[in-house]
């Protein structure tokens, strides 16, 4: 019996399952079916991740039945790359979800079906080895045209009346051509290229006295607009005084029109048109705002002071006589029944500061300077009808600064550098470096110079005056020479 049980044991012992076997979809390919149950042809490559599962039972006398079922398309690493997502979409593109039924959308320009199969962008991604057809219109970049008429236009910058405009030089008048060339040269002037600018201006052809007057007016107005370069403009007109031709007078008995005479007449006309007050009129108050009036009065005052500074530099270059300076100061702050206005005192202080050292070193000029200072001290001490000072503290301190400047032999500290050449800038930088090394502190950051000195080249260039000029000086005060 035991032997029989031993022989029957192997027949009844349980067998171990061999598990599940995976088979690639390339061996058994699943085809999607439509609603009618028919297979749909798929021309694309096999979907990645699709597999077949075959269950195979243990060995037995009966034939095993193969059961095939479709697994999830989720990859093992959980990452759906672009190729896999496109394959999934291609397999389910005929299915319509209930949530999106009734909705429609246009096909994108890049996804429009191509006339040739396998030439769409999706087909090229699924089949990267397929060569591209460059002659196909789908290969060309699509141009999207948008309608901008509905968008509100942003307000652009408006060109002012004096804005720069491109013009044809051939259609310009002669006066416009002269102004264009002269202003172009004056915009480039510096102490370094002064000789070049003078030569270019001297090459300008002038046919009559009106054109000469026009050029001088441009130069004079430019000098008043840029008082920082006033000394450079004075050097320029001094170099140009013999470079332009002399034109005959318009009427008999008048003097010929020369560059120097026209320039001095222009300065005299500007000085004689000096306003008596800087208070706005009733008409100006009605038409302009308070801020506009303030800016306009400031511009007029700066122009007035620039004219006095330019007159002083003309005197330093011997284009004006000492008697002219005396007459100018007398017209501004001379003794009269009514006290002079504050802006007239400012003009005198600006003029004397520009010529003080030179005027103080000549015999006649020193006597005039003493008279000027005495008059300024009297004005400083003047009192009004109410017993208070006749002038503001600002004007009193302005007079006091001028008096102290003369006591210091006209040495002044400049908080703003003047127009100088590159060589002078290097020398000033070296001097400041030496002062800083010696521990000068903040004083090394300021420039100290003697104001009112005549340029060194003037004494070598000035020609001796003849007896006719001296006789004209004795006859009266004249601006032109």
Would you summarize the structure shown here?
The chain is built from 17 helices and 4 strands. The N and C termini lie far apart (160 Å).
Give the topology.
Layout: H1 2-12, E1 20-24, E2 51-55, H2 82-91, H3 121-126, H4 174-186, H5 194-202, H6 209-225, H7 230-240, H8 259-272, H9 282-287, H10 290-316, H11 322-333, H12 342-360, H13 363-381, H14 393-407, E3 411-414, H15 422-437, E4 447-450, H16 458-461, H17 467-475
Antiparallel strand pairs: 1-2, 3-4
Helix pairs in contact: 4-6, 5-7, 6-7, 6-8, 7-10, 10-12, 11-12, 11-13, 12-13, 12-14, 13-14
Describe the 3D structure.
The protein is mainly α and 481 residues long. Helices cover 45% and strands 4% of the residues. It is built from 17 helices and 4 strands. It has helices at 2-12, 82-91, 121-126, 174-186, 194-202, 209-225, 230-240, 259-272, 282-287, 290-316, 322-333, 342-360, 363-381, 393-407, 422-437, 458-461, 467-475, and strands at residues 20-24, 51-55, 411-414, 447-450. It has a two-stranded antiparallel ribbon. Strands 3-4 form a two-stranded antiparallel sheet. Helix 6 (209-225) runs antiparallel to helix 7, helix 6 (209-225) packs across helix 8 and helix 11 packs antiparallel against helix 12.
């Amino acid at each position: 019996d035991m032997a029989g049980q031993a022989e029957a044991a192997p027949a009844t012992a349980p067998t171990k399952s061999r598990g599940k076997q995976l088979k690639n979809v390339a061996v058994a390919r699943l085809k999607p079916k439509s609603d009618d149950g028919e297979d749909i042809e798929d021309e694309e490559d096999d979907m990645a991740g699709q597999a077949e599962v075959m269950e195979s039972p243990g060995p037995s006398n009966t034939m095993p039945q193969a059961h095939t079922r479709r697994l999830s398309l989720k990859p093992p690493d959980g990452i759906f790359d672009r190729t896999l997502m496109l394959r999934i979409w291609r397999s389910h593109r005929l299915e319509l979800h209930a949530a999106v039924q009734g909705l429609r959308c246009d096909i994108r320009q890049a996804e429009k079906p191509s006339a040739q199969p396998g030439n769409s962008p999706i087909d090229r991604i699924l089949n990267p080895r397929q060569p591209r057809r460059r002659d196909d219109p789908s290969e060309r970049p699509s141009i999207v045209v948008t309608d901008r008429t509905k968008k509100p236009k942003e307000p652009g910058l408006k060109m002012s009346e004096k804005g720069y405009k491109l013009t044809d030089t051939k259609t310009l008048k002669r006066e416009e051509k002269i102004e264009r060339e002269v202003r172009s040269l004056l915009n480039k002037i510096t102490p370094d290229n002064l000789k070049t600018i003078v030569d270019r201006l001297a090459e300008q052809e002038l046919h009559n006295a009106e054109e000469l007057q026009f050029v001088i007016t441009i130069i004079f107005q430019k000098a008043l607009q840029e008082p920082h370069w006033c000394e450079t403009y004075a050097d320029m007109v001094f170099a140009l005084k013999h470079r332009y031709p002399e034109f005959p007078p318009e009427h008999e008995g008048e003097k010929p029109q020369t560059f120097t005479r026209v320039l001095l007449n222009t300065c005299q006309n500007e000085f004689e048109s000096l306003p008596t007050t800087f208070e706005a009129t009733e008409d100006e108050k009605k038409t302009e705002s308070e801020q506009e009036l303030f800016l306009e009065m400031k511009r007029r005052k700066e122009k007035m002071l620039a004219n006095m500074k330019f007159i002083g530099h003309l005197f330093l270059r011997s284009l004006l006589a000492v008697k002219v300076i005396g007459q100018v100061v007398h017209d501004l702050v001379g003794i009269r029944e009514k006290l002079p206005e504050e802006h007239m005192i400012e003009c005198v202080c600006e003029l004397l500061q520009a010529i003080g050292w030179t005027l103080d070193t000549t015999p006649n000029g020193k006597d005039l300077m003493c008279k000027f200072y005495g008059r300024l001290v009297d004005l400083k001490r003047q009192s009004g009808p109410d017993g208070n000072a006749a002038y503001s503290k600002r004007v009193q301190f302005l007079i006091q600064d001028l008096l102290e400047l003369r006591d210091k032999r006209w040495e002044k500290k400049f908080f703003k550098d003047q127009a100088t050449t590159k060589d002078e800038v290097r020398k000033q930088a070296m001097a400041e470096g030496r002062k800083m090394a010696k521990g000068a502190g903040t004083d090394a950051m300021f420039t100290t110079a003697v104001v009112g000195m005549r340029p060194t080249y003037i004494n070598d260039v000035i020609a001796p005056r003849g007896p006719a000029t001296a006789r004209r000086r004795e006859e009266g005060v004249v601006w032109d020479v």
